[in-house]
Amino acid sequence: MGFYQTYQGAYNAAQVRDDINSSTFALLQTLPLPQLTSVATMFSAMLFIVTSVVSATYVLAMFSAKGDQNPPVKLKLIWGAILSALALVMIITDSISAVRAIIALSANPFVYIVLLLLVCLFKALKSEKTTTGSRRHL
After folding, report:
1. pLDDT at 77
2. Cα–Cα dist 40/50, whole Å
3. How far is CA 74 from CA 50, 51, 60, 84, in A?
4. pLDDT score at 12
5. What 8-state DSSP symbol labels residue 112?
6. What is the pLDDT of residue 93?
7. How far apart are CA 80 and CA 55, in angstroms?
8. How far apart are CA 53 and CA 46, in angstroms?
9. Which residue in 32, 31, 26, 28 sits closest to 12, CA to CA?
């Protein structure tokens, strides 16, 4: 839609270059019922963020509870507070670079975990191969 609006001259594509945050709403201004579509867009974005944070909180609490499918509420609250603090840092600093730095720092240990998971996967595949190979001879 943005390409067509730009081609017709109803949308200024230079605005995306200048301020990418307002480009969605500038595009919505060129469509019918801009107030309604803007509110619907903000509501959809809010639902997406809330759903993502709740899911992330649940998964992190589940990991912290050693894979328990029903993690304690206390763990979910702790992880929710941590994620809220990250969001607060992003809002206060008016920049996502601080949050990216925190995420990059906390993601470093997971590189080693993924390598260990790969080793475990190859071991499991190897044992699966020998198990299924011995069944054929029966």
Report:
1. 93
2. 15
3. 19, 19, 12, 15
4. 64
5. H
6. 81
7. 10
8. 11
9. 26
